[in-house]
Design goal:
The protein is built from 11 helices and 9 strands. By secondary structure, the chain is of the alpha/beta class. It has 2 domains: 206 residues, Vaccinia Virus protein VP39 (Rossmann fold), CATH 3.40.50; 61 residues, rRNA adenine dimethylase, C-terminal domain (Helicase, Ruva Protein, domain 3, Orthogonal Bundle). The strands form 2 sheets. A 7-stranded mixed beta sheet has the order 4-3-2-5-6-9-7, with helices on both faces. Helix 8 crosses helix 11. The protein is elongated and about 65 Å long.
Length: 279
């Protein structure tokens, strides 16, 4: 029996440490260790990797990552109530789990990690999208991470993998698919969590590409995509009129009809427009 199996069930851990989930922290605990192990397996082979986990809570996914052989796990947890439970996991796996109490939006994890690095997390709903955007838009590419295995609300997960012509298609899909391979690998109903959220959840696995799919300046592409989708009901010639005085000519040069709307335009065409504007 491995050390992880000697730890008590998560319901006992939550009861003994009085870890009622807090809405203010976006907490919804996943207590089924079979599910957390399945999520950990979606992160791939971990024996040669350090793993960054955000918001471990009582440590369900943490236990899964360690059981799946992660070389080392760095867990960043904002809620100090969870630290004793995580300390019990660390004691069962000497030298393999480091816990930092703090806000993931304010902590630079790189001083605590050794490449190759993967990120796996049941992200708190209130910071999940912001963290994803940060990981997808570093100054340099390839990023510090090899892959991301992340739990989101189902709606957010669908936005990440969305294709042109769908309502979910937007800035998040373009950011993710420009530099990564993204796919939904698991779906979870509300009742899998304690307390049950009002929406379903899904796990998205993103693998970093060695370089972006199509050449484009990251800042220009981000600016154009934001402007296009901020007014997604408008034709692009109107939504992007602030990007260049001759925006209609630039759109045509990029192979885009000025009368199209943002959700109709594929990633490759947005990259072509970014190159046109860079000129």
């Amino acid at each position: 029996m491995s050390a992880i199996d000697t730890l008590p069930p998560l319901r006992e851990v939550i009861a003994s440490h009085q870890l009622s989930a807090r809405k203010s922290l976006g907490q919804n605990f996943l207590l089924d260790l079979n599910l957390t192990a399945k999520i950990a397996r979606q992160a791939g082979t971990l024996s040669e990797c350090d793993v960054l986990e955000i918001g471990p809570g009582p440590g369900g996914l943490t236990r899964g990552l360690l059981a799946e052989g992660a070389r080392r796990v760095l867990a960043i947890e904002k809620d100090p109530r969870c630290l004793p439970a995580l300390a019990e996991i660390a004691a069962a796996h000497p030298g393999r789990l480091e816990v930092i109490n703090g806000d993931a939006l304010e902590i630079d994890p790189l001083a605590h990690l050794r490449p190759p690095i993967r990120i796996a997390a049941n992200l708190p709903y209130n910071v999940g999208t912001e963290l994803l955007v940060r990981w997808l838009t570093p100054r340099d590419w390839p990023p510090f991470w090899q892959s991301l295995t992340l739990m989101f609300q189902r709606e957010v997960a669908e936005r990440i993998v969305a294709k042109p012509g769908t309502k979910a298609y937007g800035r998040l899909a373009l950011l993710a698919q420009w530099r990564a391979e993204a796919r939904i690998v698991m779906s979870l109903p509300p009742e899998a969590f304690t307390p049950p959220p009002k929406v379903s959840s899904a796990v998205v696995h993103l693998t970093a590409l060695p370089e972006p799919r199509f050449p484009a300046d990251a800042a220009i592409l981000s600016r154009v995509v934001a402007a296009a989708f901020n007014q997604r009901r408008k034709m692009l010639r109107a939504a992007l009129k602030g990007q260049a005085p001759d925006i209609e000519d630039r759109l045509i040069s990029a192979g885009i009809k000025p009368t199209e709307r943002a959700e109709q335009v594929p990633l490759e065409a947005f990259c072509a427009l970014a190159r046109e504007l860079e000129r």
